[in-house]
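Q: Could you fold this chain for me?
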Amino acid sequence: MKTILVSVIIPVYNRYEQLEEAVNSILRQTINDYEIIIVDDGSEDERIEWFSVSNGLKYYKIERTGMPGLVRNKGFGIARGNYTAFLDSDDLWNIYKLEKQLKYLRENPEYRIVHTKEIWIRNGKLLSQKKQKHRRVGDIFKDALKKCIVGPSTVLLESSLFEEFGGFREDLEIAEDYEFWLRLLSKHKIGYIDESLIIKRDGDWEQLSKKYDQIEIFRINGLKDLIENGFFEGEKLELAKEELLRKLGIYMTGLIKRGKTKEYEKWEKYISDYLK
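A: Sure. Below is the predicted structure, expressed as structure tokens.
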């Protein structure tokens, strides 16, 4: 058994103001048996270390990687909690987040992981989530194939479960969460609290999702690797192949429009050789 109830891991690169607000949303939680681990991915802003140390937080700085999975895994390596939670440095928690999730897991022992509903705010404006229609509880693997429907900041899971699946891939710049949840959700059901206990914020600060015009190729490569490495079996393998074909169809249409013939032909050969 570990010595803390919950380890909260926050990866950060600069974003001092957002980090301060994120940490304060943890400090206001209605439970107090937790540790906060700040993993600094090579920030130039020295205030981050000062803030972390002065507030008694665990602070671990590494050389700049730009790989969020690697950064989160570094935090898990020094965590002492029986449960693990992640909080992106620009997100916020409702004060009851941990209390309600711990209660849920105690009352629903068939689950080892639980996530929650989110509120999305962009430049101070609330974004509608009405179109987000997908299965959120139980066996959600089929829906999770389409896109990342489990936000890292929404999750509380048994630390042993995270360890069992080897953590996030450390070589994926984007969609490392999509890839990890697919692995986990292909084997386990997930619990869900239908309350907005997380605030996702989008503003004028640097974000990986803004670095590229489109990020679907990262999901394609993550899913492709899982299929090729034999991670899925039976019905889940067929569902994974079906979704990969769908994604590639859309992506390749875009390649033709952009005149990227060589990349189109590469994927066309891949489909012919491995997916049909």
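A (continued): The domain at 4-204 is CATH 3.90.550.10 (Spore Coat Polysaccharide Biosynthesis Protein SpsA; Chain A).
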